[in-house]
Amino acid sequence: MDAPDKTDLRLLEILQEDGKIATQTLAEKAHLSPSPCWRRVNKLEKTGVISGYVALLDARKLGLATRAYVHISLLDHTEETIRKFDSFVQHEPQIVECCSITGADDYLLKVIAQDPESLEEFIMKKILRLGVVRASTTHFVLSQKKYSTALPLAI
After folding, report:
1. Which one, out of 49, 66, 80, 104, has a CA that is 20 to 30 A from the CA of 57?
2. What is the CATH number of domain 6-46?
3. What's the pTM value of the predicted model, to 2 decimals?
4. In contact, 136 and 128? CB cutoff 8 Å
5. Cα dihedral 132, 137, 142, 145 sign
6. DSSP letter for each residue of 97-121
7. CA separation for the pair 133, 81 (Å, rounded)
8. Where in the chain is the domain with CATH 3.30.70.920?
9. Beta strand spans in 10-132 (E)
């Protein structure tokens, strides 16, 4: 796909604010008529620029008040170890984000839990018992100063 033009970027900005916006309203905000607006959004979806739509949930209101970033160092970097850890991450809903990183550690996990005790249990009974983790360091989130799922399209 060609790089998104200014109109596409405007549509994406609006959709990042409200993924449920009606096509007519989206078209008006983007200064388009509904048909070209729909075609552009459809193309952005088909080419994977828009990869999906989700409902953003309030974790605290759902009883998930504890968030932490967990740095992980693996025992070794064999294909089997990496595959085992990556598979574990994919199947654990408490891990909401996982990045392979540079530096002293191998991975950075964002983990959600009900409380500090349940987070400790998750780390001790699941992550560390995998048999592939050499060390972990946990950083509890005290307060969140900014949270956004929107990408900075104006760069």
Report:
1. 49
2. 1.10.10.10
3. 0.88
4. yes
5. negative
6. EEEE-SSS-SEEEEEEESSHHHHHH
7. 9
8. 60-140
9. 66-74, 95-100, 107-113
Q: Where does the chain hold its CATH 1.10.10.10 domain(s)?
A: 6-46
Cα–Cα distance measured from residue 49 to residue 140, given in angstroms and rounded to the nearest whole number: 33
| 3-31 confidence digits (pLDDT tens) | 899 999 999 999 999 999 999 999 999 99
**Side-by-side strand order, sheet with 107-113:** 95-100, 107-113, 66-74, 133-140
Burial of 88-108, coded b for 16+ CB within 10 Å and e otherwise, reads: beeeeebbeebeeeeeebbbb
Fold of the domain spanning 60-140:
Alpha-Beta Plaits (3.30.70)
